[in-house]
Amino acid sequence: MEEVSVHVLREKEPFSLAFTDDELRFTAEKYGTPIYLIDEKTLIEKVRELQEAYKAFLGNVRIAYSIKSNFNPFLLQTFMRLNLLFDIASLGELYFINRLNGNPENLIYTSVTETFEEFLYAIDKGLRRFVVASYHGVNNLIRASEVTNTKLKAMIRINPQVNVKAYVRASFRHGKFGVPFNSSTRDSTLVILREIIKSKNLIFEGFHFHLGSQITDTSSFIATLDKIENFMIKARKEFPNLCINTLDIGGGTPVCYDEPVPTAEEMAKPIVNKLNMLSNYYSERPSLIIESGRFLAAESGIMLSKVLNVKEFEGEKYLYLDSGYHLLLDSVLVRQNYPVRVIGKRGREGNGSKIHLAGIFCDSSDVFHFSPLSEINGADVGDYIAFYKVGAYSIVFNLPFHCQVKPPILFKDKDGNLKLARKKESIEDLFEEEGGYLALRDET
Q1: Which CATH number fits domain 299-433: 2.40.37.10, 3.40.470.10, 3.40.190.10, 3.40.50.920?
Q2: What is the CATH number of domain 71-292?
Q3: Prediction pTM value
């Protein structure tokens, strides 16, 4: 009964309870706005929730955090302490993990470009598990393994070409990511598998796929697993001892921003049932990897902003904030609707005007999209506005448009201590970063 009540609360309560209004107001007044806040307890809770959802799988279950969604070092350290895997797709992300003394055995390198040089660098840093998604890529990895004389585990990123009902799709016909099972070209799953198996240094580890973000219908996972089973039947005619040691099913577990979504447990149940039916094709102790960026990080984050001006006309009310889309760029790019509310004025009735949240930029696109669950009636000049569930992708999309500097980030650890996780960038920092000191030097 207790578990059910938690889910009911989440459906009705779109706002994080990690920070009280007094804490939010104190933070805004001490550090200024705009400012991001991250709650460690929420991060830990989301990991546990995802682990619990997939516990019925017959093999080992590992959670992999997709660093691209938020690479703040404080957040990464939390996930390191929880012994998560990390899905990294760039050498910059690898640098962050190395600087934090991350265990290279917990890293999965999923490059988009798959160059020989980046593979060499990653191997030198201790990585031993790679995902390949092209003929050139697998041969670059083979060459890197030969030059370094290193045994590597290789997974094939497949493009199952299935219909995906998702906010952002990542698998479709002729898509950017992965290779199809059947293709008349060398960029196909079977051709790449052959390259791996005939290599002296590569060990076939299994398959990787990622279908999209904010998936609410598990049928695309079931269809993909059906295709993997059919492929294994075909491939075992050529390689009778072929087994799947690891299956990485990517991410997609949804977050509730503006309407109810399935829980992690509800998403996992049919997927796990289907996964367990593939037991004939697994090795003795297979590993299942569940990737997540948004689900693990989103609910931990809040952005605070301040109302600087208000304008009303003909039933329309504009609240002008001290932030802009440079801090919540996905609100514009993919029309992400964040739950928003006025601090200290919860539930207050407005005057019936249609409310708009406008940013500081001289750009007509700089108007925030927000969830219908939001509570912003009664907002006035000087009030603080909180954007909830911004822990994924918002921070990493920060832009210096209009010479705007990066705001600070505060991290509330599991013991309730507030720590400065990123200092506010100064305008002088931005000037130098943009080459101002070079221009001044050249002038002299």
Answers
A1: 2.40.37.10
A2: 3.20.20.10
A3: 0.93
